[in-house]
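User: For a benchmark we're assembling, each entry needs the component sequences followed by a predicted structure for the full assembly. Here are entry 17's components. Please fill in the structure.
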Amino acid sequence: MIPAIFVFIYLAIVVYIGIFAFRRSKGSHKAEDYFLANRSLGTFVFLLSLFGTNMTAVAILGSSGHAFTNGIVTYGLMASSSGLIIPLSIFLIGTRVWALGKKYGFITPVQMFRDRWECSHIGTVIFAVQAVLLVPYIIIGIMGGGTTLSAISGGVVPFWFGGAIVAMVVMSYVFFGGMRGTAWVNTFQTILFLIFGLIALGVIGAGMGGFTNAVNALEAAPATAPLLTRERISPYYFLSYTFVPLSAIAFPHILIFCLTARKMVQFKKTVIFYPLCILLIWLPCVFLGVMANRVGDVPQIRAKQEARRVLATQGKTMTPEARDELRERAAGDDVILLLLQRYAPLWLAGLLGAGIMAAVMASDSQILALSTMFTEDVFAFYGGKRRFGESVQVQTGRIFVIVLTVLAYAVALRAPETIFEIAIQYAFSGFAALSPLMVAALFWRGSTKWGALASTVWVACAVLAVAVFQQSVAAPAPGPPLVVWSVGATEVLARTPSGTSVFGFMPVVPMVLVSALLMFVVSTLTRKPQRATLERYFSNV
Amino acid sequence: MKRALLVLAVLVLYVLHQDIWFWRTSRPLLFGVMPIGLFYHACFSVAASLLMWALVRHAWPKHLEEEIEQQERAEEEPH
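Assistant: Structure for entry 17:
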């Protein structure tokens, strides 16, 4: 229960930060102040909060869990590629979006699309697709909060109560603090994971008697030696994964965040230090996830290894349901928590638990982004602001935060977690495939609203198709994929143990390429925006 | 020329991410604990940071910054 007390202290601090941010806004009823912190964030807060916004539970719990099962490949797959693609896209796209936001007063990406392509309802379609892809994040954040609080308290706090506390806390600081509160909380959270991630590495390493023996033992055992290499993942899959970080710059909460910087100079340190922040957080998590395979005296970890062994040896003869159940038992998302319980003293486990809680609660930015998008792209766009004024618009945003959080909590209580985990998998691919919209809007004067619509509809259909495919064709046992469609000797479509492959690549690759192609072809065939509009975006028209 | 070199550097770093040469080996173990494949990608993150520094230094979109500063000055003038 002691670790849970530290977590409650942490939760009280973040609520206070939200209230402090509210006071700092001096009761302003300006939309820019609530939704964008008055475009006033300085370098330090901008870097750490933008990074924190992007580091959800996936970074700490998911990365160590993935590394527990797949080994060191996790770092190259998810972290180092993000360390190149995300800061590069912030450098190329984020700075331009910031400048346009400052120049024309945009608060959401859809406002920019509507202006750039002279469209109205097509913007609403883009809003709807973005919103649908974003909702599972919010739900999974609340579920993760409930699960973590319950695990940290040793089951004293039940899941429903833990989820309710997390939902209330996030709702409170987003409601009061808006973007300023969210940015400050994210900054505080990022500092927590940076410090506690490194402490966790040291404490667990010392508890295990150093890592050298553990690494040598892993290497000596045939079952665990591949975890120190990348032979369990195909190079095609590895290459495909570099498309996934394209999603970051298409996520509305990241784009909206780019609008909060006071000056463009704030982007400089952000893009330079972003890869290093990724290194500092992901490297310890991935390494500890792999090392967890050498911990033999924690019954829960042994049970996971046993489930993995049974799945590998008998998986082919099992029913799909039995395989799914074993996969769930073998999943390692809680290995960091288990390692902390085993090796860290209670007070330190509490502090580290608070750091993990910080990662799990990263759904704040998504809640605020959806509220911003709803009030700007729907409420204000369809006349609400004109009729009722800016103050009512901000209050609508706040009410939306409450309604959304309550609904997400209600869904989180009823639906199985795996559904949303899968939905997030699709959402990453979906947002990555929406990135050509942003590139076309900013860099190609020939792009049109019809091209944007074609890309958006394609993304919606492709995400749905992959979801239906994965629901109707059960995942095979570990080993070769289940080929569903091939032409000659070429494997076109296959179901893999962890998802789908198209020509050996992850679906995100054809999704991004076809989206870009549709944008190009349809834009080429349709009427361009007026010259006056283009002149506002491209000085040399 | 400078811009072309930076574009080339980005492409080279992207290609270097696909390090098939360390795919099936864990040795050498750096500092006695870190498999070479993991160490390589940790170094890759540092290289990405250096590349970002080069981009910021040599390809910063100054014109955007100047445009906004001009606009802000124009807005302040009447006051």
